[in-house]
């Protein structure tokens, strides 16, 4: 039974009622009759309620909403009908092919929500209340509100000239008139398109109601927020002030409100547990139900008739200047929700394992067509996918933000794993997603919830890949991701960066596997497929999301590497050329260029790119090159040196040289040797770096064990030397020479623009790092007792880490700041001038963008090599020339002698053979030793080596003892071009 106040009616209301400014409507007779009363003013200005008039409906009506003078009805079948001023009922033909789940009316506009999550608006648009965008006219027929596309909505509502939509995870979006702050956005500017009400984020909003110029929201915990016009006290804050942002109604705090309803200038709140209604706001027409016709600015109980004491209030309604309560007898309402949101329900049924089981069981039966329709309905709706698989533990999905997707990925994986059990069902899903869902996705959705679809679909792609399906759908999903507006793609990137490592790894694997399959098929060698470009770009966005901060990096960078893909050097040369030619062009306007995505390449490919880039650059001797087709011989950079004054000669000639020539191929002459040969290069780098990197050189400081070097805080040599040292390091890398660089990983991190950390300090100075870790781990309550300040000693230099506050104490609140500042001082601030000089020199030779292809550990390995010695591989890869062969007696004897050498002697042999006592980063199989006889030699001669060619010239010896003696002597004294 329904009770109203102002002018009381007592009709039998069976499902719904609604009141506008001048119209009230009730659903009766099992939904086949709608009773309407219209309110008019007499000559004295008094409002007179007319008689109820009934409109017979051909369809069963289950919901209705009243505007200023019109009403919109919703049938059980999801059809929309409009009731005009003359009480004539007409179907809304524009929505006849859509199943509508909700309708709402403002004064002169209307809204509908369809089962597939689409919002349609029509009516006046003078203040943007249709949400269609700036400058859009009023619309007499429904127009889709595309910006809300994909958001799983549970409620739409409208006020005078403003509107709201509420998502499944409590996100609130408002649009329309905002002159009194009724949108809760903190200002009074009208919005012509839906805008998120950020103040309500994480509040767990479950219901919204709109008045003429004010709004109210209800949270899951029963808290009421109001905002907008407070002219009549309708905000309940004991004031008549407008509120531009949502504010808690303090006097209802703790009451566990279960429903709210806004009239034109008044508000109702229903407390379910106590069966009480509270009202506040304008009361001139008696709409507050308090027995008097005055306004009130605080919530007070409504004086309900005594005869409803045994009845349960089920719903409350507020119209223009009147209010209603819908009651039921006894326990009749216990099974119904007191919250209007539960009566609305979800937009569509959520996808879960239960419904998938149903599809699987029916797919081979006659009822399969019904299952197909359900699959089409659910998987063609982004809002359905976005509203499924929610993390409901502790209401986590209500915390949805760019850092929290609100998804339970175990549910996602379980659902798609089950789908994969039945190929027929999976094929149906694949087709619907590719041909219906993806084309419908909107490029500029609002809210994080609308982006969940891009986090869910990779799980579908993953199960398809496991069944070795084609990559067409993967490429199509990649294209859909890239169609997103850049701002929305940035938000999606934030979602990616917040994923757990296990989930992020699976996402990367989906795109990587699709791309890898194409590459291994050889398709890429001659074709620049748009699908490949799309896959590359998505992986690029994932990589950037993963690297937003080193501290929060989700997975190791190696996760992206396609180790199994080996790029043809010819293809890589073409790719490098394209990369240089298109370097400043937008990615979308260029072909697929793999050099833009070095994190996908294995180390061999990166080294190949570096060498190809160097070779192409050497043709002109310049940096960015544009003359790839030059046929002229490459010029050289020559150094003419004396062994006795190696360092002085080198630095002098580098000082006077033109820096643009540093990129040329290096040739070294020693002691006026006129032969044009580059075989001295390895000997040059070997001996120069050994002389430079000793404590006596004065260029570097060393750790306690004198095994690692670092730049000093107070240098003892001129700054220019660090620039020249950088040039030399660049030349070594550029000319494929490993050198002695005893620096910690921080050195190589800084070269590729990665910030060193406490872990890097642990490598260089374990004791210092242990002390800092001790401070971090020390109980907060006791840190102050350590009596430490931001003053440190480093390299015999006393330093104030915070010069603005001398003697600043280390506390529990700033101990991490202290450690971070300390590490930053050691690796950055104290060496800023010297390292910058070094960088300038290094990148005068090497191109920075190519060096940054390498991870720090890779760069260290390429420049310095590694100490993993596989002597058996060296033997297996050896080739023999001239009269030598594997079975030659002298060769057999040589390997017998070699195997009897100590480990240090074998390393010395490697140094003797190659000019370096370390193994290339790619392993010993990169060294292919050649052995030939030493011409015109006798048993008195020692073995010799050409280091640049890994060539061993081995005399024929009459006995094992003589071979052993001569080899050990030669290796021990490094006899080669640099005899000692």
From TrEMBL:
Annotated PROSITE patterns: HECT, RCC1_2, RCC1_3
Entries under PANTHER family matching the protein: E3 UBIQUITIN-PROTEIN LIGASE HERC4-LIKE ISOFORM X1-RELATED (PTHR45622:SF73), UBIQUITIN-PROTEIN LIGASE E3A-RELATED (PTHR45622)
InterPro entries named among the record's database cross-references: HECT_dom (IPR000569), Hect_E3_ubiquitin_ligase (IPR035983), RCC1-like_dom (IPR058923), RCC1/BLIP-II (IPR009091), Reg_chr_condens (IPR000408), Ub-ligase/GTPase-reg (IPR051709)
Active site, renumbered: 948
Swiss-Prot/TrEMBL RCC repeat ranges: 117-169, 170-221, 222-273, 275-329
The organism of origin for this protein: Salvelinus namaycush
Domain HECT intervals: 658-977
Organism domain of life: Eukaryota
Pfam families: HECT (PF00632), WD40_RLD (PF25390)
Gene Ontology terms: biological process: protein ubiquitination; ubiquitin-dependent protein catabolic process
Protein name: Probable E3 ubiquitin-protein ligase HERC3 isoform X2
Coiled coil regions in record: none
GO molecular function, one term: ubiquitin protein ligase activity
Gene: LOC120052838
